[in-house]
Amino acid sequence: MNTMKYIALLFVGLMMTACQDDWDEPLFNTPPYGNNAISDEGIITIAELKAMYPNVFASTDQNKQITENIKIRGRVTGNDLGSNIYKQFIIQDETGAIIIAVNQSGMHGFLAEGQEIVIDLKDLYIGGYRKQPEIGQPYNGTSIGRMNKDLFQKHYKYVGQPDPTVIQPIDFDVNMDMDANCAKLVTLHDVSFAPVGGLGTFAPDTTQDKTVSLVGGCVNRSLNEYSSSKVVVRTSTYAKFAAMKLPYDEVNKRPKKCNITGIATRFNNTWQILIRKESDIEVLE
């Protein structure tokens, strides 16, 4: 009886092994996010896109639905890795840059810096938040806001692997054309933060530092080299480097010079520099 049992078990094992030979190997060449069915037809540059809708950026907070079968292609230059860019990311091509607003956090997990993507713009909205171009959905009627995350997944596809070296930051110039250069990756060379009171950090908790005033949950820090009406460094209190001390020489009691890399967004006619992560701050002395 036991012999018959063993023979039966052996037979079952052999059958299972034979069945396994017919299994298909899993395929891992299809990206887990996005819409791989999007074609490469109808791709225009970011500069061409902006030129098609100049009126939505000319005044405060407008939007317009994109009805044309057009797409843009660019690389991610800024995301929420350092928590200073919130529910949006930035793409840039050889002609310009634009913000993509999505109601989703943790996007750096699937949109790394240097990742190239194609975005199908048909039926999405383009608008200007304080003259800063964005792609998203309507907010409060005429303004532009974040699109639904499920909608966004249907409107983009990956192109190749991330390569953050392809797009290098340009040297910041306060007088450069805002329309052409807003949202580009830039580096401000040899600058220093204006003296501040309190804890002297990038964006302290206001319960700990009463000298700080918040604007939209962020702190605007001035630079000694520029008027605050022209350039500010904007940091969220949720940024991972928010509690970091502003570069300062405690011995000689003066601000330290540094190079700052970030996204040069605009707020009307003021440059707002968004540092992406702590490594974007290079202290020179």
Topology:
Elements: H1 2-20, E1 43-44, H2 46-52, H3 55-58, E2 62-65, E3 71-78, E4 88-92, E5 97-101, E6 116-120, E7 125-129, E8 132-139, E9 143-145, H4 149-153, E10 156-159, E11 170-171, H5 178-181, E12 184-191, E13 218-221, E14 231-236, E15 248-249, E16 254-255, E17 258-267, E18 270-274, E19 281-283
Parallel strand pairs: 1-3, 5-8, 11-12, 14-18
Antiparallel strand pairs: 2-7, 3-4, 3-6, 4-5, 6-10, 7-8, 8-9, 12-17, 13-14, 15-16, 17-18, 17-19
Largest sheet: 10 strands, mixed
Number of helices: 5
Strand content: 25-35%
Query: What gyration radius follows from the Cα positions, in whole Å?
Result: 25 Å
| Shape by Cα distribution | globular
- The secondary-structure class comes to alpha+beta
Helical content band: 10-25%
Low-confidence stretches are: none
Give the SSE string.
HEHHEEEEEEEEHEEHEEEEEEEE
